[in-house]
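pinging the channel bc i need a second pair of eyes. not urgent but kinda urgent?? the chain im working w is below, pasted from the shared doc
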Amino acid sequence: MSFKKSTVLLVSGIGFIIAVVFATYVLAAIKATNDSREAGEAQLQIIALDLESVLEKFETLPFALGYQADVEQALTHPDDPVVIQRLNLTLQAIQRQSKVVAIYMQDRNGMTLASSNWDQPFSFVGKDFRFRPYFLEAIKGRAGRFYGIGNATNQPGYFIAQPVYPSGAVHGSVAPIGIMTVKIDLAEFEDTWRSSESPITLTDQSGVVFLSNRPAWKYHSLQPLDNAVQNDMSGTLQYANQTITPVAALPKATQAGFGAHLTRPIGRLGWQLMLFPSQARVQRVASLWTLAVSLLMGTACATLWAMYQRRRRLQERLESRNALQRAAVELEQKIVQRTQELQLANQNLEIKYVKLKETEHLLRSTQNELVQAGKLAMLGQMAAGVTHELNQPLAAIRAFADNAVTFLARGQATQAGENLAHISAASARMGTIIGQLKGFARKSHETVAVVDLAQAINASAALLQNEFKQHAVHLDIEIRESLQVIGDTVRVEQVLINLLHNAIDAVATVERKSICVSLEREENTAVIRIRDFGPGIPEQVAQHLFAPFFTTKPSGKGLGLGLAISSSIVQAMDGQLTANNHSDGGAEFLLRLPLLQIMES
């Protein structure tokens, strides 16, 4: 199928679907509107019957109350408190039984003489209501009816008034001597209407809403009122001097639902009961129908699309099968080629690995030889002092031996024994010196063991004892805590000897020839501090202090490898060797090593 033909079919299909959906919405909206009007007519008829029933129920109550025996006596003797009180109690009992808001009696001048609410703060007794339309009608001999907000209680209600005539007089033949009025509460209808989704209102003859399930519409008119109507309402205080504005003047959200409506006349005052069918319900029903048709159309389109896709998938599957066969052949060729390349790369990698291992072995051997060379260099520097240390006991042995021979010749065995003891002690001292030299000079095999740092410090100091004496250097050793680390004892001593030897050189030309060595713990680290009182470390030297072949000593005094080797040994033990100038003068080297328990964990 060509692209142009496919586009035309797609556009046509979309246009058809849109037309069907739009037609469905229009037809569903018309049907829902008709159904809503029919349901509204039925609901309006039920509400009207209930409302008419309540209004007619109390229509004859004020007429019948006019025949009470105390009514005529109260009207003819308004100053008799006994009669007035008896009538108050009677009206109160009837009001409570009939469930009306209030029952009260007025004289022909509109003054209230008795009322069912006589004992309430808002009692009608003594109030003048002759301005009310219901009084004006009843005093003329006709039934008075009126809806308005109470002047005393500020509560709205429906007022029914009947004239009261003297006993025995024919109604209409003489003027009324008083008025009997009943006030009815219609608010219960509003509570019933609130369950309705559609707005319901009851308007008076002027089109003012006084009952509604939309509270915001109350005391607003359906149409703007002219000045004459407004003045008439103000004169009767029908709505307590409220300014009546049209519902259409309310905010859009408040007047939602106001529009087309159904109407039925109610009562004898020209009231209109109105129901505004809910447009939201119409739109909801139309939307549901549209959604249903849309789902149906969507299902049909999805089915057709699935069939079309299935056909395409079968064709694509056939094409894919052929493509896979071609790809399999190409892949097999690439796998063979790639396998050959990987084999060649693997051979090259094995060759490089062997060379790397050889280089690593050579580097390690060179490093060990360099460490050993450093030790031998130190031994060379200590040779003169060691020779002096050995010459002293050797001379003593010779003298004691000659004396022992003389004492034996004289037969003085005791003195000869004492000389032999001196010879034994001198030879033991020589053995100790030679043992320390052999232990320090032997080639390390990188064996890892527990190193007692206090013993290592003392052993290093012992090897350099002659150096300290020769240069008149005072050595102060402070072991604050006996600490142990994991490492090579010989290499630790090598580091300490190198640092002590450098410290001796540093104080050789100064007045205060003193070196301080301390051992202490800082958290999980052993710290050895070696401080001298020499000139300190120059700033330009500090940057290259641990670099190989860097030295500040004269030619023949060193190769510049001592600190570099020492730093390498300490790093191999997971330690750190640093140097700085002390605040009180001189240089200070800090050797930090992890403690034994930390290494084990």
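so Residues 279-410 form the longest helix (132 residues). and The two ends are 76 Å apart (CA to CA). — does that match what u expected or am i reading it wrong
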